[in-house]
Amino acid sequence: MIGDPEIEAIRMRSAYSRSTDVALLALRGDDAREALLHLLPSRLFLRDAQVKESLLLSEDGRPIADVLVCADDEDYLLLVEGMTGTDLVEHVSTHLPEGIRPDVEDLGQTHEVLSLAGPWAWQLAAATLGPDLVALPYLNFFRVPAGICVRAGKTGEYGYDIVVRREESEALWSTISDAATTVDALEVGPRALSLCRFENWFFDPAFVPAGVTPLELQLSWRLDMSRKWVGHEAIAGRMAEGVKRRLTCMVSNTPVAPGDTIRLDDREIGEVVRAAFSPARQEWVVAGLIDIAYAHGGIARYRVGETDAAVLTLGPPLIDNRSLYVDPRRHTWETRDEVEDRPLVRGPRALEAP
Questions:
Q1: Which of 54, 160, 289, 335 could lock onto 67 through a cystine, CB 3.0 to 4.6 A?
Q2: Which residues are CB-contacts of 47 (< 8 A; sequence separation ≥ 6)?
Q3: 168 near 75, Cβ under 8 Å?
Q4: Strand order across the beta sheet in which 147-151 lies
């Protein structure tokens, strides 16, 4: 038993939400791709209807936003978390070189995002938007009458973000709410989604420590160092210096708090960046920025804060997501008993540490 209705819906059934913190930006025209390559650091070889995870960086290399890039023929739709629409447009206009001027539209003025998540979210998506959604591959989008549906997700479960025009959003929301009863889905808020995201170690721009780059956050895979982009010089300099610390996943039986010192015996080796109680694991999930020599999984010797809380370092994700075992070709909500007995916890718990 998880004990938190919203977390339980995401992990065991289905959940739906209104993503009020997602900014939407369209880049169109002849300069759209060149602008994209200058603004975003990732490899961006995208076919039509494909989606790619990327970042927006400040000039000093700090991640300021999490980005999903959707390739719409030669145009691009960006779903951005970590910035308002106004700040996003300003960032784009400030950092584009002279001569690169795509058509830029803040779609957040006219559209919003409705999201579905959970091991049975695909069935809710199919009931709401049509059966073709069942076959939508991960990191692709599909046009639907209400707008576009992006299959992505940041909870470790099946996830769908529906970009819909605001004048049509209430009708779609009502349709989702009605269909939710068929899979026992629940409306959830940002708190539950953020915690599930944390348990699965997805990047969250709301929790970026000062002075870090994607290198410390284990996001090097989102960097294409073969070309220039905003923040490239700072990242290259950090690479030349050598990374000193790395974000490390830990669990604890004892409450800890951001800012708490992490120690090995009498040596200070890092600090807590984020900590939250996980109802699924029944313990605290902790992100610590730790000296690189000590930033490894499977260590139970570190202590945290004034309470001397014991922590166990683990390799994320921390949840054995039920969606990994739900196959839309074989299962349905009505036959959920075939996968319901799977444990949610992945890896040892802090109590089980040696």
A1: 54
A2: 71
A3: no
A4: 140-144, 147-151, 159-165, 111-117, 15-18, 186-187
Distance CA 5, CA 190 (A): 14
pLDDT for 342:
85
Residue 134 in this model has a pLDDT that exceeds 80: yes
What are 231's two structure tokens? 């923040």
Four-CA torsion 122, 124, 125, 130, nearest 10 degrees = 110
Q: Where are the beta strands (DSSP E) in the chain?
A: 15-18, 22-28, 51-57, 63-72, 75-81, 103-106, 111-117, 140-144, 147-151, 159-165, 186-187, 245-252, 261-264, 267-278, 283-291, 303-304, 309-313
Please answer whether residues 297 and 249 qualify as being in contact, where contact means their C-beta atoms are separated by less than 8 angstroms: yes
- Tokens 């319901």 sit on residue: 340
User: What are 239's strand-pairing partners?
Assistant: none
Q: Average pLDDT over the chain, rounded to whole?
A: 96
Average pLDDT in the 335-354 region?
A: 86
Could you write out the DSSP letters of every residue in 231-272? Answer: THHHHHHHHHH---EEEEEEEESS---TT-EEEETTEEEEEE
Supply the pLDDT for residue 172.
97
For CA atoms 343, 349, 352, 353, give the dihedral sign: positive
Is the model more confident about 342 or about 328?
A: 328
* 292's tokens: 């690189």
**Do residues 256 and 277 make contact, with C-beta atoms less than 8 angstroms apart?**
no
Residue 341 has pLDDT above 90, yes or no: no
Residue 8, judged by CB atoms within 10 A of its CB (0-12, 13-18, 19+), counts as buried
324: Cα separation from own chain's centroid: 17
Residue 58, SS3?
coil
Residue 329: how many other CB atoms lie within 10 Å: 6
Cα(138)–Cα(85) distance, integer angstroms: 26
